[in-house]
Amino acid sequence: MAVKKNSSEITVGAVGLGYVGQPFVGAMAEAGFNVVGLDIDQNLINKLSEDYEPTVYEPGLKEIFKVHQANISFTSNYEVMMQKSDAIFLSVGTPLNSKGEPDSKSIEACVSEIAPRVKNGQLIILRSTVVPGTTRWLADQIQKRTGLQPGTDFFVAFSPERTVSGNAVQELKTLPAIVGGMDDESTKRSVHIMKLLSKSIVITTSSPEIAEVAKLVDNMYRTLNIGFANELGLIAEGAGIDAYEVVSAVNKSYERTSVFRPALGAEGPCLSKDPLILRHFAQTKGVETKILDAVVDVNKNATDRIALEIIGFIEKHKINNPIISLLGLAFKGSPETDDVRGSPAIAVIESIQNYFDSTKVTFQLFDPIVTNFQGLNTEINVDDSIRDANIVVVMNDHKLLRNIPIGHIAQISKRPLLVIDAWHSIKGLDSFEKSENIEVFRVGDGQK
Ligand SMILES: NC(=O)c1ccc[n+]([C@@H]2O[C@H](COP(=O)([O-])OP(=O)(O)OC[C@H]3O[C@@H](n4cnc5c(N)ncnc54)[C@H](O)[C@@H]3O)[C@@H](O)[C@H]2O)c1
Fold first, then answer.
1. Where would I find the H helices in 357-427?
2. 328 lines ligand 1 (CB under 6 A)
3. CB 39 near ligand 1, within 6 Å
4. Selecting from 3.60.10.10, 1.10.3230.20, 1.10.287.3510, 3.40.50.720, what CATH number does the domain 234-442 have?
5. pLDDT digit string (tens) for 82-106?
């Protein structure tokens, strides 16, 4: 089948309309494609079809949906999507199961719907982060279910999602895409589509497995940097120096080095799971992952220690009904997001609730973006969260949580008071003197 040249001639199916799928629909529509978005969540499809309002926080997406509404449709019907689409992009979730291993249920369910319906000439591009080998398995499934031949009758490639939530629409247009096709024709057709989407270069790999591992390496690299930063933070605390000053000195005007600053663990929907997908893959090949294991441990401790500091403070001061203010509930503050999956705030709340009688501890929670947090109440501003609290913790790096004066916190909170500044964002700490009733812990800073 001839390849359609222009985006306006091409209909793409986007399967899985979560944090990745919805911005992808918007970016494809903006690039001129016709888009059929599919999800098994019927409530989500009803909502999207009714008002074309994204259900994930992604700046600019709402406007794009409105402007390009005529070229976007939503369905939960695989037959409809497969009939209309020239190329089908899969972005369903790939979480871990309760044993911490990759859970491929969503991918399997989605492939069982797609495989028997593939028609001559269709291109399937997998974008979910997967155990390497999944793209090859997907192509096998299509061949088995249809009898069609890969590389001549249908085409399959892996092209990972590399954006950060909160800036995804922009990044889809500008980031280099990686494409690993099952064969030359699959790669060629995928590159053609990705070039219509992004102004950036498209990097091709010799196999889908290389592209699949590349995606895991992207996130492992960040996890390693975070782990090293957190260990540096511990060293600095032990040495009575400030790791932020070390990092700033080592990075400044020296492109060879780009060290992260210590804060919390490697959190969020991707970094909390992708290293474990890589570990699982290594184990299936009989390879030990000593560095990976150590980093996962270091990062877990970086979040756990916040809960331990809080618990230690409450016990030391025998506070009967402590009030804990957590500022920043999303897994990250910059770029801002409403995504709370793998959020350190959840881990800290769980540890504290497991330790104390949970009816005796009050959490006053605030986030500039997140209003719906695990069914718990959230405050409408910083002051309502801090007021009368015994413990105040800055949990993420959102710009609205930067520069809160320590004097102001001290004024409206209770005594005894513990202030934990995980991101060096509280103003005035350098000149602030600790007292018996006020303790301050700035992560990675041995002077505070
Ligand atoms: N969130 C990110 O920023 C990010 C970044 C890069 C890569 N990724 C990867 O992209 C993939 C998707 O992540 P996400 O954050 O969008 O997940 P998500 O949970 O937000 O969305 C997944 C969507 O898939 C739908 N779904 C599940 N099974 C389905 C099926 N059988 N058929 C159709 N739809 C189905 C769900 O209903 C949900 O709406 C994951 O593999 C993730 O690791 C995510």
1. 382-386, 406-412
2. no
3. yes
4. 3.40.50.720
5. 999 999 999 999 999 999 999 999 9
